[in-house]
Specification:
The chain has 281 residues and is of the alpha/beta class. The chain contains 10 helices and 10 strands. It has helices spanning 52-67, 97-115, 132-139, 164-171, 176-185, 191-197, 207-219, 226-246, 248-259, 262-280, and strands at 2-6, 27-32, 37-42, 72-77, 121-125, 129-130, 142-145, 150-152, 189-190, 202-203. The strands form 2 sheets. Strands 1-2-3-4-5-7-10 form a 7-stranded mixed sheet, with helices on both faces. The protein is globular, with a radius of gyration of 18 Å. The structure holds ligand LCMDX3IU. Ligand LCMDX3IU binds at residues 46-47, 49, 81-82, 85-90, 128, 130-132, 154-155, 158, 160-161, 163, 254-255, 258, 275-276, 278-279.
């Protein structure tokens, strides 16, 4: 049933060994022959940490799906328990200056492409989805999540601040007072809590069911004129998109300044150390 499987092996050179997760592409795109819906799968073990390479592949895959005139995009993960662990903290901890710039710029590109995508988008959240993972999920139009996982913007727990456009995605889904409290608390919602609060739309008991529910959502537009639908979506999202587009350079500057603060570096170091300790126990 797959019209095409785009999963090329593109060799990559990078000078920083700790960022070299794989020489292969970190995303795959599969287009269903019958529905015309593209499934975009993140595949960067162990936790789909969003580093420069995964973000670059995500950006290229989204572009490819738009160019292919797919009927819709479903974002998911090849990991059975993690959708995405969010930004790869190693990109921000003791960072290389030029790489840090490319990393943030590519994250901005991914958000602009996904939040502003012309095609209907849905996330099959088949695992934990903190911070940047939640950003990706809330940039989609519909979310289906598997039970007993967590999702949320936990930045304050790391001693960092979610940028305005992270908040825009969150606010496009949650009521303002829920979003404000959750952001301030760095709250991670369980699947049940996420459903109760509207952070996700449905719960599914397996990845297959989640993908099917996402496809059903995308199919709900089958009788709607695609151009009218995409222009409507883009108008509704235009203010947030233009805000970042017009302030990309300042946003990058703020991020670089903030990340390089000694207190932020110290906090990230402690957070990483705790993660590593936890994974060894
Ligand atoms: C006003 C000015 C504003 C300007 C803007 C300024 C700043 C904004 C900046 C940043 C915004 C950042 C958003 C983010 O996304 S930060 C990342 C947040 N992510 C997390 O907190 C998740 C942390 N991870 C976990 O909770 C768990 O790992 C998880 C539940 C995802 C999975 O648990 P599991 O038990 O399966 O796996 P672990 O054993 O914990 O992990 C395996 C392995 O992976 C490493 N790791 C996990 N997450 C990350 C990560 N996000 N980055 C890097 N590395 C990660 C973990 O350390 C283990 O490594 P190892 O010990 O096996 O080497």
């Amino acid at each position: 049933m797959l019209r095409s499987t785009i999963s090329s092996l593109v060799p990559r050179a990078t000078s920083v060994a700790r960022h070299m997760s794989n020489a292969a592409k970190l995303t795959t795109v599969e287009i269903n022959d019958v529905t015309g819906i593209a499934t975009l799968t993140m595949n960067r073990p162990p936790v789909n940490g969003l580093n420069l390479e995964l973000l670059t592949d995500l950006n290229n895959s989204i572009q490819e799906i738009e160019d292919n005139k797919s009927r819709g995009l479903i974002l998911t993960s090849s990991n059975p328990t993690i959708f995405s662990a969010g930004l790869d903290i190693l990109e921000m901890y003791k960072p290389d200056k030029e790489r840090l710039k490319a990393f943030w710029t590519t994250l901005q590109d991914v958000w602009l492409a996904l939040y502003g995508s012309a095609v209907p988008t849905a996330a099959a959240i088949n695992g934990h989805s903190p911070a940047g993972g939640c950003l990706l999920a809330t940039s989609c139009e519909y979310r289906v999540m598997l039970p007993k996982f967590t999702i949320g913007l936990n930045e304050t727990k790391l001693g960092i601040v979610a940028p305005k456009w992270f908040m825009s995605s969150f606010l496009s889904v949650l009521p303002r007072r829920v979003a404000e409290r959750a952001l301030n608390q760095g709250r991670m919602f369980t699947t049940d809590e996420a459903l109760r609060n509207g952070l996700i739309d449905e719960v599914a008991n397996s990845k297959e069911e989640a993908l099917a529910k996402c496809a059903e959502f995308i199919g709900s537009f089958s009788k709607v004129n695609p151009l009218a639908r995409s222009l409507t979506k883009q108008q509704l999202r235009a203010a947030e998109l233009s805000e970042l587009e017009n302030e990309r350079a300042q946003d990058l500057e703020k991020f670089i300044f903030f990340v390089n603060q000694p207190a932020v570096q110290k906090g990230l170091g402690i957070y990483l150390e705790n993660l590593k300790k936890k994974s060894k126990n």
